[in-house]
């Protein structure tokens, strides 16, 4: 059935297609029981695109992505591509999508599902009830700024360098998203940088402080150095509500936060652009994890980060909050039954990727 909701699916490499195939079962379920339909197109990205088209992202795939209401992304990368030229590496496909779609705000929620309290490597009382949001700036900083390069010096040795650069408007727009998120959550923003050693960090702190004076009413703002933040995340993560940080710190802190929830296989994300004049944002939904080459093809990848990225899509791009609630409750019930993919350890039932999804869908069937 045709719809006015255009969804692009990009499974990518490694476990990407494995977790994506399972997640797409949700589309059939929504069509069958809720009469919610998407026009779906699938495009290659990453290593798969390189193998088939000689580039990690074709111009056609990029322009199709720009035309869609949302992109559901799997994962890219793998050892097979280690020796490729930098610009041809699978990861460039993902980075180009983020940049060209101007997806500057990356929301990475770290939520501990009650049945997984024992799955975290941290003590239960440290993580129980945790619900924090890491807001990562996604289109600037050291990931994209120039100059960058590897140059040969007169003595024949080389120098490799990247630039960490942020402008006032770039910091303001991510800061504004942080304040808006906090106002809908627990009214606290922790702004993270290293203003003690980096000038880009000095500017970051200055701009966030100024913005706070203008737009931060009713919320609490604190500043924290990134190294301390990494430590505080494992010491007492519940002190945080929204953490806002640059591209590189956000990459690292979100993998760190993943282990609070039990596994990197649990962490979803939404990458959002600025709203246009009709209030519509470009958006891509991507699990925080990668292609997991060590478990690819074994059928044991945890599909839940991809599933939860799908529910973020339902909420942020399509306003299907009830359906997102229904799926997230089903995830919680599946985990309550004791089902665990190997990354989650423990539990009373070891399950495969498909079996985990069978349990999620069985639970959804009770509430349709
Ligand atoms: P990774 O996230 O792929 O894996 C790290 C560890 O977590 C591995 O032990 C893996 O088995 C485990 N893991 C990750 N997701 C899991 C899941 N859903 N279920 C169970 N276990 C899971 O990170 P890496 O090994 O550092 O990188 C592998 C490749 O993935 C690299 O090429 C990297 O660039 C790429 N990568 C891609 C993305 C992305 O596409 N968004 C994100 C991170 C890394
Ligand atoms: C992530 C990944 C990516 C990043 C890579 C694959 C480009 O690690 O989404 O966290 O560093 O942003
Ligand atoms: Mn990462």
Strand content bin: 15-25%
Element order: H for helix, E for strand: EHHEHHEHEHEEEHEHEHEHEEHHEEH
The order of strands across the largest sheet is 2-1-3-12-11-4-5-10-8-9
Just give the CATH class of the largest domain.
Answer: Alpha Beta
Cofactors, ions, other ligands: nicotinamide-adenine-dinucleotide, 3-isopropylmalic acid, manganese (II) ion
Under CATH, the homologous superfamily of the largest domain reads Isopropylmalate Dehydrogenase
Report the mean per-residue pLDDT as an integer: 97
Major sheet details = 10 strands, mixed
Distance between the termini: 20 Å
The overall strand count is 14
How many H/I helical runs? Answer: 13
Give the low-confidence spans.
Answer: none
What would the CATH topology of the largest domain be?
Isopropylmalate Dehydrogenase
